[in-house]
Design brief:
Blueprint (H helix, E strand, L loop, with lengths): L5 H14 L5 E5 L4 H7 L5 E2 L17 E2 L7 E4 L2 E5 L3 H32 L4 H28 L4 H11 L5 H17 L4 H17 L3
Parallel strand pairs: 1-5
Antiparallel strand pairs: 2-3, 4-5
Helix pairs in contact: 1-3, 1-4, 3-4, 4-5, 6-7
GO molecular function: CAAX-protein geranylgeranyltransferase activity; protein farnesyltransferase activity
Length: 212
């Protein structure tokens, strides 16, 4: 199999998750199974630079060509996502590294925001800029943690980071998103205690938000 850049793999996985928010099942697939999987779905096997991303309506990627099954990395169709077992380790390592860096930035910006609140902000513009920075790093934490949880479902630090971000939110859609993520993780790890706990917590938060 052609050696693929782990960061490129992570970017492609996150792009799939962003592009197909209704994915409700994920699985890890040996490269030899991709052809059979694709034939059962009634599609033609296409690839993009060694990575096949197929859906009902489009193929993600800049260059499309006939694919060697051993080169397939991701398969996406009918709300299902398949990830090649051959890339799990480098993909996990990169996802963990990227997430931990984002979490450190989030903690740093959160601490700075607290200090500004305690001692007073220099100006409204600096407060606004600081708020935008926090929102940006929050988005990074949520994005990278989502990918990492699909590769390591019982990584407590990752679930806790999402709870930390959620604690500052007051709109119901984000709790719905957490329920969908928990369900997606449970599709491949139905006994994951962390996933069940997070799902329950998100449900309670949503009910509390709705005053039910």
């Amino acid at each position: 199999m052609t050696q693929l850049n782990p960061l490129d793999l992570l970017n492609q996985l996150e792009d799939i998750l962003d592009s197909y928010p209704l994915i409700d099942e994920v699985g890890f697939i040996h490269p030899s199974q991709f052809v059979t999987l694709n034939e059962e779905a009634g599609g033609s096997l296409l690839s993009s630079v060694g990575t096949m991303l197929q859906s009902e309506d489009r193929v993600l990627g800049s260059r499309v060509s006939k694919v060697n099954p051993s080169e397939t990395v991701f398969w996406c169709r009918d709300h299902k996502l398949g990830i090649s077992t051959q890339v799990l380790l480098p993909l996990y390592n990169m996802a963990k590294q990227t997430f931990m860096a984002a979490l450190e930035r989030y903690k740093m910006h959160s601490n700075l925001s607290v200090k500004k609140d305690e001692y007073g902000s220099d100006s409204m513009s600096s407060w606004y800029a600081s708020s935008l920075d926090v929102l940006e790093v929050e988005s990074e934490v949520m994005k990278h943690s989502r990918a990492l949880l699909l590769l390591s479902c019982d990584f407590g630090t990752v679930w806790n980071s999402r709870k930390l971000v959620l604690s500052n939110k007051q709109h119901s859609q984000i709790f719905v998103d957490e329920l969908l993520l928990s369900a997606l993780v449970l599709s491949y790890a139905p006994k994951s205690e962390c996933s069940w706990s997070h799902s329950t917590g998100a449900s309670m938060e949503k009910l509390s938000y709705l005053n039910l």
